[in-house]
Design brief:
single chain, 376 residues, alpha+beta, Butyryl-Coa Dehydrogenase, subunit A, domain 1, Butyryl-CoA Dehydrogenase, subunit A, domain 3, 3 domains, four-stranded mixed β-sheet, 51% helix, globular
Amino acid sequence: MEDGSVDLLRETAREFARGTIRPVVMHHDEAQTFHSEIIPRLAELGFMGAMVPEQYGGTGLSLYEFTVLIEEIAAVDPSVGLTLCAHNGLCLGHITRFASEDQKRTFLPDLCSGRTVGGWGLTEPGSGSDASAMATTATRDGSWWVLNGSKAFITNGSAGSTFVIMAVTGRTDGRPRISAFIVDGDTPGFTRGKSENKLGMRSSDTAMLTFENVRIPFDRLIGAEGDGFSQAMEVLDGGRIGIAALAIGLARGAFEASVRYVKERQQFGRPLASLQAIQWKIADMATGISAARLLTRNAAEIRARGEHVTLAASQAKLFASEIACRTAEEAVQIHGGYGFLKDFPVEKFYRDAKLLTIGEGTSEVQRMIIAKHVLR
């Protein structure tokens, strides 16, 4: 049973999403512009440091509470939900979980206050699911690390100020030692590519990052050298739970728009809602969303208990992302020709949904992870 604080969080996030984000959703989508004007507002509400302990300027929400927040935001604009997931779940999640006390006190307050926006760099042009093919390197030079390489498809890539970047720092038995570093966005030699022109999530900033002899102080290494890959995999467990919540929010937004439409739209002299074919679609949509929410909540609770969560996180992310795609597609079908128009919100939900089966591990990767855990 949820307590009153979760109800208050849900209502606060819902009111903000509907009152502040919804009026400008299509403006930002059409223009492909980042919602920079709402970052201070998100920070005022405590959403920019959602899961960071209060001693570092955060709100101290649990992972489950974070899923409630993301669902409400994504039900109005999944792009803003994606911005928050990358900032909170990946960048801040990595620093909060693995950084030193000095690193936390240096970087977390500005990230939580919205003075800086966070990004996280693992994927490269030549290595997506196969992180062992990573080409970005960090070479020791006295009291500095020298970073060279590039990262692709980085959420908050252009808008971000503080990044956690994974790089190869050597090899052991032919296998790369991957380490994680905190990198300031204004460091000389650090450049960002243009914001990518995307099918969906168009107001979530996505860009390539390039590093040419970027000199990083030695104390920007997170944890021990060579720990970056294991850190990243643990961060991704939490990140996938956040993406599952985002998928639930998107699906719910498409579902709620469909319910409104079928109650109002008349066909054959009666509301669409009276037709059994439509009722069955609505029933399947509602059931899928509820099941995805239960899987996601279960994963969040497992993580909160400190238990191994990789299997549950992959199951939640796989199921919720595919439910989001299915629900958005059915929502367009229910709307008929109107579902193909940008005047109706289901068109954007349909475009936004596909990324959720790709980002933070494709559906195929999630199935590989699940099968590995089941069959070992």
